[in-house]
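[Meeting: bench + compute handoff]

Bench side (C.D.) handed over the final construct sequence. Compute side (W.E.) agreed to return the predicted structure before the next meeting so the bench team could plan truncations. Sequence as handed over:
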Amino acid sequence: MTSLTDRKNAAISRGVGMTTQVYADRAENAEIWDKDGNRYIDFAAGIAVVNTGHRHPRVIEAVKAQLDRFTHTCHQVVPYENYVALAERLNALVPGKGPKKTAFYTTGAEAVENAVKIARHHTGRAGVVAFAGGFHGRTFMGMSLTGKVQPYKAGFGPMMNDIWHLPFPNVLHGVTAEDALAALDRLFKADIDPSRVAAIIIEPVQGEGGFYEAPAGFIPRLRQICDQYSILLIADEVQTGFARTGKLFAMEHHGTAADITTMAKGLGGGLPISAVTGRAEVMDSPAPGGLGGTYAGNPLAVAAAHAVLDVIEDEQLCDRATRLGQRLKQRLAGLAEEVPEIVDIRGPGFMNAVEFNAAGSDKPNPEFANRVREEALKRGLILLTCGVHANVIRFLAPLTIPDVVFDEALDMIEASIRAARG
């Protein structure tokens, strides 16, 4: 009998990478069961998608109710009220004063693409500044903005032009906020006149880049520079959004509002939906027909998103994210003295990571991080690595994970780190 892995290898493009060979059969909250009946605790959450857990009853109920009405009309042809209502909710929730407007899409990369389109149209400028280590998608604009070559850019030919990268402030790796701001100043003096820059895009916490949080004071300073040169600030909240960092949006930690915010992942509770929300006069710049997409704002995904926002509020998931993250970081800190490979434990809310170097060295240790991931999988815990050097384990369990399951996972994490040393 041909295995599922053999069938996958024969049928699916090699470029679609897979972290595990766990083929899901069913899932509930923070647990997944595979085709053989094996149970796993999910500390990936579909890469920060099911913040409200797999199959949250209220999300399922909302989608079923929408299924009984209609599944697709294309909002640009026959619009529907719940699309309008979700836009109204996001306009009120996204940080920033004054009128805001929203447009819906299907993926995070689409949201980023359209944020850049809107910024360029509104400003009449072409340049976009992004950061090393940032991740913004796999489309050509997304790849171009992304500050990591392997595996996202390698071999795909020329990137989009007028994209410029700065070092992301990361004290652990020798880059201060002052260093990054000085690099921006040099960029404006040596490579591109700020009057040609449409936008600066930043993840408040880098996702694929290693879960590095922008240091206090850095994003407000970017805001000042953007205002000085009439540049738009784009906050990529695709991975940080919807209670993951202990706030609905990570920009709230910095007391700063972007001109445009992109979001996806956690918004749909497992259904594909993304959004761009921004200042009304910016969002209204493109002419009718300039924005949209056939599946953009699909009715089922919109219904799920309404339920997700209700669950986050009613179950106080922002506060729960903070509590879960504190417990996880405390457990990891208890290991640090006896595991010299641990060089950093970080992350706001429940967007946490542990970084590994070779013991007694500043050399990144991706092999150790991968051993931890593999040891965890043997024990029934799904973990993900990340980082430019792939030496970081990130923790992204659903915010609704039951305490008993969370405690079980903490024991697995500790055992896996110890086993990786052995």
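W.E. noted at the follow-up: The mean pLDDT is 97. C.D. will use this when planning the next construct.
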